[in-house]
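Inputs:
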Amino acid sequence: MLKFLRQAKDYAQEAVQAARYIGQGLAVTFDHMQRRPITVQYPYEKLIPSERWRGRIHFEFDKCISCEVCVRVCPINLPVVDWEYNKEVKKKELKHYSIDFGVCIFCGNCVEYCPTNCLSMTEEYEMAVYDRHELNYDGVALGRLPYKVTADPMVTPLRELAYLPAGVLDPHNLPPGSTRAGQQPEEIVAQHQAQKPSKEINQ
Amino acid sequence: MVEETPPTVKPKKEKAPAREDKPFGEFLEQDFFPALKAAFNHRGISDLTLTLVDRPVLGSSVPCPQVVGTWASWQFNLYFPDRDLQGRRAFSCQHLGMGVNTLEPFLIDERKITLDLMVFGVMQRLNGQKWFNGN
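Outputs:
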């Protein structure tokens, strides 16, 4: 009899535990139930890409040393680096550099490994063309300054969900000066520095 | 019989001061401009005009010494805000008569600027712009 009761108790406990785990797993799903769709009126309103957005690659001609590291780290050896050794100054003379964004997968390896930081990611993501060969950007096109959502006077920039104040779901008509939920990086640094001296005293 | 002078007696010839040590304007006028013109001639362009002007960069009120080079319908500018080759340098290029839109660094990774490097830098940059021959 006692054994049966213990079994029943264990079963009930495990059932409760399982229900709790399922609830935990679905918490994010349930969180979405209170979110309503937000419409971004696209050509007039655009979302601001997040900090580590990997958009079109920017290329600075002056910094390139034609080392071809970008080609080596590219999964498909995509960048084209055309250079010739200049015997007079004993330097490689870069003649042509191009990346075909119709083929690029925006993995960012070239940007990561470029030894002179001459490649960088921009937040430009609108690269619609009529002919896919127009996406083959040469050094001149790669060197153009990127389009910025926040710098376009015709566009209302909207923040993504992660950059909205706590509890706010609609990026429209935010009060000026509202910051995203959580601490700002400079606040974290200030807090860290405030804690430092007390730790040193304890040591 | 010619008497040979022992090598120790002969005073060591003083190394001529480098061209790059000349005063800024003098170096540009006497060395850089002819060298760049020769490099352009080598490419078959003879109508290059080079001038050194003191003009503020757009958006600033401080006059900035700059080399303005023009030929056909092209123009390029080299900026030396410190009035020194080894100081800060910038580059811009545009269609003749159009405004400058991007200021780029010029030979930013070089430790020491020499005449050859400057000519090399300008020629490489303009060739990269596809201004000498088509794409």
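Remarks. The interface with chain B takes residues 60-63, 65, 86, 88-89, 91, 93-97, 116, 138-140, 143-145 of chain A (CB under 8 Å). The helical segments of chain A are 2-25, 27-33, 69-73, 109-113, 139-142, 185-202.
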